[in-house]
Structures are given as C-alpha cells and as structure tokens.
Amino acid sequence: MARLTHPPEDNQAMPVPSLRFALWRFAVVLALILAGGAVWFFLFRDDSESSEPEKEERGEAAREPVSDDPVVRKMSLDEQINEVLMLGFEGATPGAPGVEELAGDEVGAVLVRTENWTGSDAGKKLVAALKAGEGIPPLVAASQEGGEFRSFPDLPPEARALDIAREKKPDTAATAWAKAGADALSVAGFDLNLFPVADVATLDSPFAGRAFSDDPSQVASLTKAALKGCDEADIACAPLHFPGLGSASQDTAQGPATVATDLATLTARDLVPFEAVSRKAPAMVLSLGLYPDFDAVMPGALTPGVATDLLRRDVGFRGVAISDDLGAGAVTATYSVPEAAVRALAAGIDLIQVADPEDAEGVAKAIETAVEAGEIEPERLAQAAARVIELKRKLGLIDD
Fold first, then answer.
1. Is 234 within a domain?
2. Residue 203 vs residue 25, higher pLDDT
3. Burial 265-280 (b: 16+ CB within 10 A, else e)
4. Is 110 in contact with 84 (CB distance < 8 Å)?
C-alpha cells in the first residue's frame, strides 16, 4: 500500500493514537507536574506556612545543649546564658531586692562593688546571701587591687602595685601583698579577684600606680609572684588587661582608647607578663582598648583576633576569658551593652562582665536571640559555660 504524500481530505479520518501511547503521555505530564510542585515546595515556600508544631520543633532543636561537660549538658539554653554572665547588683544587705533577685538567677558570677560594701561584717553576710540560692552557686568576684584602687577600703592590701615594685625584694613582697588581700577576700567568702594589673605602664600612663612597672620582665616576674599569693589563699585571680593597656590613649572607662602599638611591639613588651602566667592564671580580664593591627574600631575583648586567636592560639591560655566592664565608655560610645555582649561572646569571651545592673537590661535576651538566629554557635556558648563551670569545680563550688 502506498504511503500518503499529502494531507488527507476533510472527509478522511485522522489516525487514532493507541490507548497505550495515550496513557504513557498522561503519566509523563503528571510526573512533570508533581516534580515541579515538589521543587516549588522546598525552594520557594515561605517559612510562615510552616505549622506551629514544626516551628516549635526547630526552636527546641536550637536550644539543645552542646557540651562534653556533664553539668553543662544538663543545662537549658537559658541556664547556659546565665552561666556566662558576671553581673553587678543594687543593695548592700541580704534582704535587698537586687540581692535576692540575683541570688535566684544562678548567674556565672556576681561582682560586689564599692557601693555594695558597708564593712567586712556586713559584707560576709552579703556574700553568703548571694550564694544562698538553689542550684549552682555563682563566683563571687571583687576588684580589689591595692591602695586607692581597692573596692573595699577596710580590707588589704594598702600598698599599690607600684609601691610593691619599689621594695628591696619585690617578688617576695608581691607574693605576701597578694596573699594578704586574697586571705581577707577568702574569709569574706569571695572566690575571684580581678587582680593584678599586668599592664606594662610608664608613669604618664592612665594606669600608672595600678601597674607594677614599665619593664616587661619585672612586670612578668611580679605578676607571677602575685598569682602565687592568690594560690596560697585559694582565691582565683584574673590578671588584667590582656593584651596590654599600658600605652592606651586614655582609661577605657572614660571612652575609646587606642593602643597605638604594632603587633611586634605588643608582642615584645605588653604581652610578656600575660605569656608568663598563661599556664598558671585561672582567668584573665580582656582589654577594651583599640588595637589597630587587629581592629581599629572594635574593642579588643569584642574582637576574635584578640579574644581567640591571640589569647588561645598564640599565648596558649586555657582558663576563663573575662571581658572588662561592657558598661565602660570605650564600649558604649559605639555599641549598646547587649550588642557588645553578643559580639564579645561570639569573639571568644567566656564571662561577660556588666558592673552596673542598669546596663545589664536586655543582655541575656540579646544572647538568646543571637544563638537562635545562628549569630552565636551553640557550641561557642556551651564552651564558655563549660569553662566557667570548670573554674567553679576547681574552687570546690561544684561537686559532680
């Protein structure tokens, strides 16, 4: 039979496709439609279409603790956040609202300031009240340096660091000096002293008097001797202000302060005392100065290059990294305190210090939001909490 070589006439019937071919074509079209729907669902759907149970499940996953420490593993997200806070408070008596509230919050540390202290007898009762809450007790901290730089004038030491450096046997004097202050704090119930100042500072420095000397090797030797005195009194002491504030343009409490020193000079001079005690010090306070070789506009304690790379990798410190007070002018000139707290924790700080209770408003919530948004990794928060817990364990505050 000859093939058609032209279109059929109008009255001629078109060939009818087989049933099998029709079913095959229908299946292909249906598969394409289903595949397109799946792509749209997974790539273009709005999260707002997720069911509430799904949202809650994701939220709970974000709150899952991540740590090898047995104490931290049992903590909720809120408990881990509280553990990385060092907060000041209002009140000077056990029954003061600020004292009772803070004692019930189970924070990592509480800072007793001059305004909280009315004398050693009342101070002992105050410290006892701060530790009376249920759960893990806080580290009760002070900033008791020496001379006019003491928070508690009725407690030793009366001499300044600069006076100790001028003694005939300064190392021996530094150990006795530190031990006298630590003994008095221990009797009052304290666990931690933000001390000694390990900055290399000349007499025209904003930290003159608070520092031992302008000689790096002498500052290193006296810092080691002072930590020995702390150890003998069973008090944890945290040298400050890593990586060095001796050549700062002003006191960071007043406003932004630049340490106009390149990394080579910082390493050869300012870092020497901190390196000398990096394996001994249980904690260190990090500076809020500006270090142009790391970041010209962000304070050191908020900078990963300082708080992690320099402190952990280069210096080899393994203890608790404490920020200087985030309510200082060096911070608040640029950042809100909650924003600074998030930056500090993400950078590598383990214990966030906020001395004025009014400045602490919103800090915990900002950290929670940052963790849930992925700005702070859950592992970073758990790591910080674990370091604080380990210090408490060493001081006998926690018995696993």
1. yes
2. 203
3. ebbebbbbbbbbbbee
4. no
What is the three-class DSSP state of 304?
helix
Residue 47's contacts (CB-CB under 8 Å, 6 or more residues apart) are: none
Residue 225 included in any domain: yes
Residue 10 has what DSSP assignment?
T
Mean pLDDT (whole number) for 108-119:
98
For residue 195, what is the domain's CATH number? Answer: 3.20.20.300
pLDDT at 285: 98
Separation of alpha carbons 351 and 396, rounded Å: 19
Please give the Cα distance from 44 to 58 (Å, whole number).
19
Angle, in degrees to the nearest 10, between helices 170-188 and 120-130: 70
List, in order, residues 6 or more apart from 361 with CB less than 8 Å away: 338
More confident residue, 379 or 29: 379
Mean pLDDT of 48-75: 61
How many domains does one find in the chain?
A: 1
Residue 93: CB atoms within 10 Å: 12
Within-domain flag for 29: no
DSSP secondary structure code for residue 248 in this structure: B
Q: Quote the DSSP letter at residue 15.
A: P
Q: For helices 363-372 and 378-394, give the axis angle rounded to 10 degrees.
A: 130
d(CA 112, CA 89) in angstroms, rounded, equals 8
pLDDT given at position 105:
83
Is residue 15 one of the residues assigned to a domain?
Answer: no
Residues contacting 273, CB < 8 A, separation 6+: 198, 199, 200, 216, 219, 220, 223, 239, 244
The Cα 345–Cα 351 span in angstroms is 8
Domain, as residue range, for 161: 68-394
Residue 134: the pLDDT is 84
Is residue 157 reached through a cis peptide bond, with omega within 30 degrees of 0 on the bond before it? yes
Q: Determine phi and psi for 330, rounding to 5 degrees.
A: -65, -25
What is residue 23's three-state secondary structure?
Answer: helix
The token duo for 395 is 């001081």
